[in-house]
DNA sequence: ACGATATGAATGAATG
DNA sequence: CATTCATTCATATCGT
């Protein structure tokens, strides 16, 4: 998001205490640091597949798949979706506004509207097809794209930051043109998946781990 | 020791984007740079009104109001409060050390007033904290500003999380740092936040992704 | 010009 | 699901 993030050092912080002496080095970083690939996939799921609150199984599958790109646990996936969703909402929540002080241009808002990245990998349709078969197909991970992928970097970031419309003291900019592009619209996701995917049977059927 | 985390400084000079545009749009800076007036108001809200974590609506209002003094968005306000609060606390965390003995009259509520920064513009002064308004009076009425959320709640909170566990050299820690971290193992921090007496370990669900 | 510090922004992790 | 906390990155600003 924001400025192209890059994260170069993907897989390496692992094995915190394993192996060697053990405690000398603490668990590396206490917190999960997603690799770019992992993020890419997560976003793909989120935006292109409409996954927003994956169920336990989905989480398992997703994390399993993401594990190829680096260490990851189920909770990471869980939190990621939670946060991503929450933040998207939140942003909308208090950014809504921008009372048009001058005229023209609306939408000056949104700080981080990244939406739907258009995947480069081929994937004719993400529609139900894939989803449908999901549920009970152990082994196959029905995530967006099952194949491996050789796409190069995907940079879907966008540069935001508009030209302010600073008001206040001065007559302000007369221009009132809206230089903002990018984040306009594009927010709709099929949303069908959710339904197909989501069995929503029990709200608490996850396993408790911990200790 | 922390992992090489993340983001890169991308050449984000967006001005180039519009670059040669005709109109000057010199947001230049990628990040919001609060004007003195904005800061003044923010601090006023923070210190004199006890606003620490404004809710969405408040944020909207605040940002709307601050917009008079310059470009600003909801997120800026949001982050400002978050950061301000966090840093204040962070600083305090370190500061707490002294005076291990006698705790009674510890400065209660004395946030270091270093605000009232350069106030070149008008505005008499906001009477920086401490003396004046006493934070602990839950009776202060938030004039004007919609204030409704709790303020003045200078929750003593539990500030712990000191780094003492590191182990390493000397005994202390039992050697059971399980190589398998995740939430299964022990965290670097001793029981901190949550509570020292109640081991509430129920998130919503834990998806343990052990392989 | 740097280096240090202050602070905006982002995000993982938790809690309620 | 909303809110909050902690951490960390990125930069603006200031000092020397």
SSE blueprint and pairings:
Two copies of one chain form a homodimer.
Chain A: H1 36-48, H2 56-66, H3 74-95, H4 128-134, H5 192-197
The structure holds a DNA duplex (16 and 16 nucleotides).
Compact description:
Chains A, B: Residues 25-91 form the Homeobox domain. 2 copies of one chain form a homodimer. Chain A has a domain at 36-95: Arc Repressor Mutant, subunit A (Orthogonal Bundle), CATH 1.10.10.
Verbal overview:
Chains A, B: GO terms for molecular function: DNA binding; DNA-binding transcription factor activity. Chains A, B: This is Homeobox domain-containing protein. Chains A, B: Belongs to the WUS homeobox family. Two copies of one chain form a homodimer. Helix content of chain A is 28%, strand content 0%. Chain A is an all-alpha fold. Chain A has a domain at 36-95: Arc Repressor Mutant, subunit A (Orthogonal Bundle), CATH 1.10.10. The longest helix of chain A is centred in the middle third of the chain and has 22 residues, at 74-95. The radius of gyration of chain A is 21 Å and the shape is globular. At the A-B interface, α2 and α3 of A face α3 and α4 of B. Chain B binds a DNA duplex (16 and 16 nucleotides) through α4.
């Amino acid at each position: 998001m924001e400025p192209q993030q890059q994260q170069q050092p993907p897989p390496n912080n692992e094995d915190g205490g394993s192996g060697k002496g053990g405690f000398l080095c603490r668990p590396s970083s206490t917190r999960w640091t997603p690799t770019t690939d992992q993020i890419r996939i997560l976003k793909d799921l989120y935006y292109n597949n409409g996954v927003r609150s994956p169920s336990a199984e989905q989480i398992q599958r997703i994390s399993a798949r993401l594990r190829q790109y680096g260490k990851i646990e189920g909770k990471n996936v869980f939190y990621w979706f939670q946060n991503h969703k929450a933040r998207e909402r939140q942003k909308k929540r208090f950014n809504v506004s921008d009372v048009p002080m001058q005229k023209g241009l609306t939408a000056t808002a949104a700080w981080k509207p990244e939406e739907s990245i258009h995947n480069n990998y081929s994937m004719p349709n993400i529609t139900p097809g894939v989803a449908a078969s999901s549920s009970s197909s152990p082994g196959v991970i029905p995530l967006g794209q099952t194949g491996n992928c050789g796409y190069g970097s995907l940079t879907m970031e966008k540069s935001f930051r508009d030209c302010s419309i600073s008001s206040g003291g001065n007559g302000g900019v007369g221009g009132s043109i809206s230089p903002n592009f990018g984040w306009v619209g594009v927010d709709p996701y099929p949303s069908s998946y959710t339904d197909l995917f989501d069995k929503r049977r029990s709200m608490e059927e996850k396993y408790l781990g911990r200790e």
